[in-house]
Amino acid sequence: MERESMEFDVVIVGAGPAGLSTACKLMQLANENDQELMVCVVEKGSEVGAHILSGAVFEPRAMNELFPDWKEKGAPLNTPVTEDHIYLLNSESSSKRLPNAITPKTMHNDGNYIVSMGNVCRWLAEQAEQLGVEVFPGFAASEVIYNEDGSVGGVLTGDMGVGADGQPKDGYMPGMELRAKYTVFAEGCRGHLGKELIEHFSLDKEASPQHYAIGFKEIWDIDPAKHQPGLVVHSAGWPLNDATGGSYLYHAEDNQVFVGLIVDLNYSNPYLSPFDEFQQLKHHPVFKQYLEGGKRVSYGARAIAKGGFNSLPKMTFPGGLIVGCEAGTLNFAKIKGNHTAMKSGMLAAESIVEALTKNAEAPESELTGYTDKFKNSWVYDELFRSRNFGPAIHKLGNFWGGAFNTLEQNFFNGNLFFTMKDEHKDYAQLDLAADAREISYPKPDGVLSFDKLSSVFLSNTNHEEEQPCHLQLKDASIPLEVNFPKYAEPAQRYCPAGVYEIIEEEGSKRFQINAQNCVHCKTCDIKDPSQNIRWVVPEGAGGPNYPNM
């Protein structure tokens, strides 16, 4: 097929904090060196920020480096953290607030801000465009373009107007080739092109398996009398009896709070429903005291790459790099990845400009110098010091793992002489249903807790219905013939959007995929015990439309 092609110096896939920081830094350096660079950012969301979901308590270290005058430029960092509360939830009604002295210092948030990362990314996109970057929202990068020598030469955007049968409809528009000297992949956690590149170039052959969690977030308008701008609440324990993880409630601006739960995806009980665990959480007095009388205004969910230092892949390959959460740069000891994602992108920009300065017409194929830059950066130091945090929780549980992490972070500054590792893959941890305890969750009350469909409605999720399903089964028989008898088909429960159902009709069962509900969290791609589900991009602009997550 003849496709339109556009040539750039750099193509960046994903308008999140990593991709946009890469773009801004590229143009800043080019302007300093009087270089002309053609840079584009392609974003699958309907607008920049539409697919961004993060807690978020934001550490401004990378922002200070990228835009030292961010305050004057109006960056939406409006709510400084004023207080940290950390709780151990012992049961559905009891809790103990922990003194800061016996919690890991990485959890302390002096100097940080409570933000909407969707709005921060919208602001970063504005800065990028002012610097000369072309930003293309609503276009999904669907395929990697490989050159004849095997190097990456860019990406192909997805076709628009293809029917469910794979045939063009009226108004069909073929995707475009976006070719570049370097392509930077910044799709976020479990990006489907990044997943392909890691496998294609064996980038993770010397790393531990990546580990993941699913993170939930709701935005609530609350009673102004209960609102304490800048208050950060974290907790561990209940309701997660069958999993590790933790919860949060952040008092943002405009009488809003951000509330959520993070559930590690290495859990073993196939009957566990992360969504229902989250809905239970809000009934605990620690959370209920703020939410009662309020109104839920937004909902979303997103997978989190939390393997950290031990799971970092090689980030360079001929023709490009992977950066940010695509590479797993999140620091789970801080429960923060935005600042590290931004810095990883800024380092990528430095490496690219150096290569283009040496030889603009035929720059080196693989940016091997990036590895040295990364290892000499504060991101590497941060991740190294927190390398034991996740494995300690996985091996010792929330309580004893938390105690170990407090000891290591507060007394040894993350520099103990040994490294703990978790070499088990998250999807392989499920017990057989026959050996597991069935979990009966309380029905949502419609006041503090809700069902999946009403929640998905608040995510503003929308897909063109007549298109190929973007949730692909390698073998359509596996859900009913393997996953159902062995694991009670956990896709019905681990999906936070009601995408997967088993329908009984006339005495027989049918596995149904409601792809239009998908909030692009990638949990199915991660947790399916048979690794039978492959998440690929739907038609551009599909998915959630988060206003200020």
Structural summary, described in words:
The protein has 549 residues and is of the alpha+beta class. The protein starts with a strand and ends in a 14-residue tail after the last strand. The model has no long low-confidence stretch (mean pLDDT 95).
Helicity, in percent?
25-40%
Q: Helix count, per DSSP?
A: 14
Through-space gap between termini: 39 Å
Number of strands: 24
What is the topology?
Blueprint: E1 5-13, H1 17-32, E2 39-43, E3 57-58, H2 61-66, E4 79-80, E5 83-89, E6 95-98, E7 113-114, H3 117-131, E8 134-137, E9 141-146, E10 152-157, E11 160-162, E12 168-173, E13 177-185, H4 192-200, E14 212-221, E15 231-237, E16 245-251, E17 256-264, H5 274-281, H6 285-291, E18 295-305, E19 316-317, E20 320-322, H7 338-358, H8 369-375, H9 378-385, H10 389-411, H11 452-458, E21 471-473, H12 478-487, H13 491-494, E22 500-505, E23 508-513, H14 523-527, E24 533-535
Helix pairs in contact: 1-3, 1-7, 7-8
Summarize the structure.
The chain is α+β, with helices and mostly antiparallel strands.
Summarize this structure as a short list of keywords or feature phrases.
549 residues, 7-stranded mixed beta sheet, 24 strands
